[in-house]
Each structure stands twice: as structure tokens, then as C-alpha cells.
């Protein structure tokens, strides 16, 4: 099953239906004029033509319904054709995708397929779209809009540094200031930046990852107070945050440290 085949078939029927409706509208105008002029002979003729066009339209709509029923939306999703075409469209449109059915990451978005209800979710938003090409085009357009949005790397790194300092104080209570340098997990800093659940709804981990990616791609290497910062990896992949660099290559950032 290929949704594009169904779509092409529908375009043919839709064109024919559109032409029928257009002709019917012309007949309707003639019908109205005949009644206005009192030409009931022409009026009866036009009414007969109208009935014929209505029957033809009903036949075309039944054909459309039969095409969709024969395609089998549930089977299309359940047998894996939908996912296969979704991933193929990602490759064709150069949309990064990673994960396993039914949850994928199309950086910086998360995509989930609800097979029971035949729904598709982009992050937490339900999307009524089972045409793979249209969905991936929307994802790409949304990603491009985010990339064009204004971003202040200095402001972002300032917030990271403040969260880092707070975590250092908690981890090194009672120790001298000279020992307060070390790597801290970025995910830990995320919890400091979003202490309440409602904050995490507005600024989820994927949004944080996207900002990290933009900071990673920037030329900024120090904070306003003169400290430099450095990202670090982790052997535990679950502790890392996956991003795409400026060349579209995936990187895994786990920790950050600020130092003189």
C-alpha cells in the first residue's frame, strides 16, 4: 500500500467531481433565470439536467469512498507501510529521524504513532495526517522556522551558568570555593531551569536540546564573567542529550563545566 497511489487516484476523481459541480452551477443559474422569466419549459429541462448531475456526483462520491475503504487505513498503519513510507520521506527530504516504532525523534521534535486510534502526535499535539509526505513536509517546515527564530546564545549560556553554579553549591556544601569545578549533567541543569511541571510543558527536554544545538553551533566560548565552558560525553547514553550540529551530524552532549 502506498498513500501516494491513493492520492493520485483521488485527484482524478476530484477533478471530475469539480467539473460536474461547475457545470451544475451553470445549470442552476439557467434554472433561476428561467423561473424569473416565466420560461417553465426551459425550467423543467434544466431541473432534469440538475437531477442527472446530482446522481453523477453521488456516483463519484461513492467511488471515492470505495477507494478509501479498499485502501484500508487501519491495515495501512498496522502492517508497517505507513512507517516505511514515513521514513522514506524523511530520507528524501533530509529530515533527521531516529528511534523505533512507534516513537521517533525528528530533531527537535518527537513523533509518536497511536496505532489503536490511528492518530499521529508531533510532540504532545495530535496531528490528523496519515499522508507521510505531507507530515514530513510539515515537520521540515516547522524545523526551518525554528532555525530562523531569534536566539541569544549569551543569554542562554548565562542561564546555564547560573543553574550550574546552583548545582555546584548543592553538591559541594561546606567545601572551599576552589574545589567547585566539575562536570554536571545537562539533564540535571534542565531540572534546575524548569523546577515545576508546568514549566517543563512549555519548555520540554527537546526544546532544551534544540537550544543546546544552537549554542553548540555558535562561536561563543565564554560567559559574561569571563569563564569558559566545555561540553562533555558520558558512557551512559541515557544521560546524554542528542543534538544535531551545524553540519547535520548527531552529537551526544552529557555534561558541561564552567571554568576560569
What does this structure look like?
With 260 residues, this protein is an alpha+beta fold. The chain is elongated, with a radius of gyration of 29 Å. The strands form three sheets. The chain has a five-stranded antiparallel β-sheet with strand order 1-2-3-4-5, with no helix packed on it. A three-stranded antiparallel β-sheet has the order 6-10-7. A hairpin with a 4-residue loop joins strand 3 and strand 4 (119-122). The mean pLDDT is 93. The termini are far apart. It has helices at 3-37, 40-71, 73-78, 81-92, 132-148, 153-171, 186-193, 197-202, 205-217, and strands at residues 98-100, 103-106, 109-114, 119-122, 125-127, 184-185, 228-232, 241-244, 250-253, 255-259. Helix 4 (81-92) crosses helix 5 (132-148). Helices cover 57% and strands 15% of the residues.
Look at the structure and give the mean pLDDT: 93
- Order of strands side by side in the largest beta sheet? 1-2-3-4-5
Element-by-element helix/strand order:
HHHHEEEEEHHEHHHEEEE
Helix count from the secondary structure assignment: 9
Name a few traits of the molecule.
single chain; 260 residues; alpha+beta; 5-stranded antiparallel sheet; 9 helices; 10 strands; 57% helix
Task: Provide a brief overview of the structure.
With 260 residues, the protein is α+β, with helices and mostly antiparallel strands. The chain has helices at residues 3-37, 40-71, 73-78, 81-92, 132-148, 153-171, 186-193, 197-202, 205-217; strands at residues 98-100, 103-106, 109-114, 119-122, 125-127, 184-185, 228-232, 241-244, 250-253, 255-259. Helix 4 packs across helix 5 (132-148).
